[in-house]
Write a structure and sequence with these properties.
The chain is an alpha/beta fold. It is built from ten helices and nine strands.
Length: 335
């Protein structure tokens, strides 16, 4: 047998075949028993999740190394925006990774604030956070023990009236380099709207009640809307007008949604006359800091449906009336 000129052909059996490229006589016919694709897709999702986890471990390790040797300021006074987040308890031991990811972004904020609980001793904070404080991170003690609302409320209700856009962040997320730059660029195109990387469409049932939170789909498109619900994990920017309204509303969240800051923030967006716009056409979910999910608030609010009673207690009659004018109706329950 003579070898053909050029690159030898690879045996076809080395390529995984799909139905489209199988010869006609071998294509599945009616009545054939086909393999269970559910197991295949479940395995593929599991592999994708494991791959994301491996990447997150690598990125977090690299950011920790950079943090030990970094000297550059975490802020840029020429960028008129405040980034605020909170951390507590054991999570303070990993919060430096999220802060470092923000500090390594292509755009750094004018101020970067980490709020801690009133009973937390600042002198006992982990060395990694103290090093970040030396590079410009403001570690401040909240006057109130208000759970996740610490990420924004001490800023809007402090002695200084808000005068700059506020971006909220989480202490368990690895933020990509252009995270803040894209928020600011989108805000310039929609200055009166809240802008966020990850948005859901709030749904109402046919009888006007709020549909279960877990049924709210991720938003598609970049058109501002009242029904768009910013999920704070991927970051959201709040214009000054919304912050002033939050300041006027006070601590009403303590009686209706003490563990769901996103619900109160969305309520404030609606009642302030603003709306929410997504940065890109599709929502983005960023990598999580390894070792932070054991006490993640999302386990309680979404996994145990704790968001639902808090949502019913939060949205006023006026808010629901405004939402009914544009909200997609949830499909009837199958139960």
């Amino acid at each position: 047998m003579t070898e053909r000129q050029g690159r030898p052909r690879t045996p076809a059996r080395m390529f995984p075949l799909d139905t489209a490229c199988v010869p006609i006589r071998h294509r599945p016919q009616e009545g054939d028993v086909l393999p269970d694709t559910t197991t295949f897709h479940r395995g593929r999702r599991r592999l994708a999740k494991e791959a994301r986890r491996a990447v997150a471990h690598a990125v977090a390790a690299w950011l920790s190394v950079l943090g030990r040797h970094g000297r550059r300021s975490v802020t840029d006074p020429d960028v008129p925006v405040v980034v605020s987040l909170t951390s507590f308890g054991d999570r303070l031991g990993r919060a430096h990774v999220a802060v470092e990811s923000i500090a390594r972004g292509s755009t750094r904020p004018g101020r970067l604030i980490l709020w801690i609980d009133p009973d937390e001793d600042p002198s006992s904070l982990p060395p990694a956070l103290r090093r970040l404080a030396g590079r410009g991170l403001e570690i401040r003690t909240s006057p109130w023990d208000i759970g996740p609302h610490k990420k924004y409320y001490p800023v809007v209700a402090g002695p200084d009236v808000p005068c700059l856009p506020l971006v909220t962040a989480d202490d368990d997320v690895l933020y990509p380099r252009r995270w803040l730059a894209e928020l600011l660029a989108t805000s310039e195109r929609a200055p009166d709207s809240v802008v966020a990387h990850r948005v859901r469409d709030l749904l109402l049932c046919e009888d006007g009640r709020i549909a279960p939170y877990n049924s709210w789909p991720l938003a598609r498109g970049t058109t501002p809307a009242l029904r768009h619900f910013a999920t704070g994990s991927s970051g959201a920017l709040y214009p000054v007008a919304v912050q002033l309204h939050l300041r006027a509303l006070g601590r009403g969240f303590e009686s209706c949604c003490p563990r769901a800051d996103d619900l109160w923030l969305h309520h404030a967006v609606i009642t302030s006359g603003s709306s929410t716009r997504q940065v890109r056409r599709r929502s983005r979910t960023f990598l999580e800091v390894p070792g932070t999910q054991a006490r993640a608030l999302s386990h309680e609010n979404t996994g145990r449906s704790a968001n639902d009673p808090q949502a019913r207690a939060t949205y006023s009659v006026e808010s629901l009336s405004a939402l009914r004018a544009e909200t997609v109706t949830a499909p009837p329950s199958s139960t």
